[in-house]
Amino acid sequence: MRDLRKEFPVAKHHLYFDTASTGLLYDSLMEWRNVHDLDYLMGGSTFRNTHKKFLDTVRKQVATTFGGKKENIALIPNFSYGFNAILEGIEKPKKVLLLENEYPSISWAIQSRDFEIFYAPLDAHVEQNIALAFEINRPEVFVFSMVQFINGIKIDLDFLKELKGKYPDTLFIADGTQYVGIEVFNFEDSALDILGASGYKWLLGGFGNGFLMVKDDVKNKISPKTIGYNSAETMASSAEETLFIKH
């Protein structure tokens, strides 16, 4: 434990209890980032010669850690980027269920688009509230934070599986930024269709990184519009040939 504390300069002077807001940067990560930038500084364009292999390694690690399929994992700069890209690919209008007082990165993105929005109260009975909202409104999309930023309530995973069993056609989209890293989680075994997360909280990844995981059948429900040439497999690839997850 003493050696672990040495990795975190802040811990030399403070007891840090604010990871739910921002995870700490640690010495080993800082060193890796410096070497990474130095490779770019000294190598120029040759820095990218191995980037596809490196990114593939990262996808494999994410898949192993969170129980997903490598080919269904997108690496993104943050949750909001990936979430908005997903929303642009959903045909509208759609009936969307949100929780009251949801994290603004979720609620603002939904409210700024042509969705019919319903809300479930966020309190100690949140699972019952969600179940009732499903029964009354029959949402086509359910978007939520797995852990609520305002009070720390965690949505019960077994409840979500039961709910998904009753409403298999509803798209379940979750923000895991406040969740991933706090306990063992298997995406493929969960009720979620899409999980996105930034890496700067419990994963201690610093800013500028995140991931998006999708289930196989999501590809039949969403048509991504966010795409760039660097997502192509080769210089000769077309937009139509570019994989769903690389949009």
What does this protein look like?
It is a single chain. The protein is an alpha/beta fold and 247 residues long. It has two domains: 2-47, no CATH class; 50-246, Type I PLP-dependent aspartate aminotransferase-like (Major domain) (Aspartate Aminotransferase, domain 2, 3-Layer(aba) Sandwich), CATH 3.40.640. 32% of the residues lie in helices and 14% in strands. The protein has seven helices and seven strands; from the N terminus they run αααβαβαβαβαβββ. It has helices spanning 2-6, 27-43, 51-66, 79-88, 104-111, 126-137, 157-166, and strands at 73-76, 95-99, 116-120, 141-145, 171-175, 194-198, 210-214. The protein has a seven-stranded mixed β-sheet, with helices on both faces. Strand 4, helix 7 (157-166) and strand 5 (171-175) form a beta-alpha-beta unit. Helix 4 packs parallel to helix 5. The chain is globular. The mean pLDDT is 93.
Low-confidence stretches: none
CATH architecture verdict of the largest domain: 3-Layer(aba) Sandwich
Q: Can you summarize the main beta sheet? A: 7 strands, mixed
Distance between the termini: 42 Å
Decide which structural class fits the backbone. alpha/beta
State mean pLDDT (0 to 100 scale): 93
CATH class descriptor of the largest domain: Alpha Beta
Q: Tell me the fraction of residues in β-strands, as a range.
A: 5-15%
The succession of helices and strands, N to C, reads HHHEHEHEHEHEEE
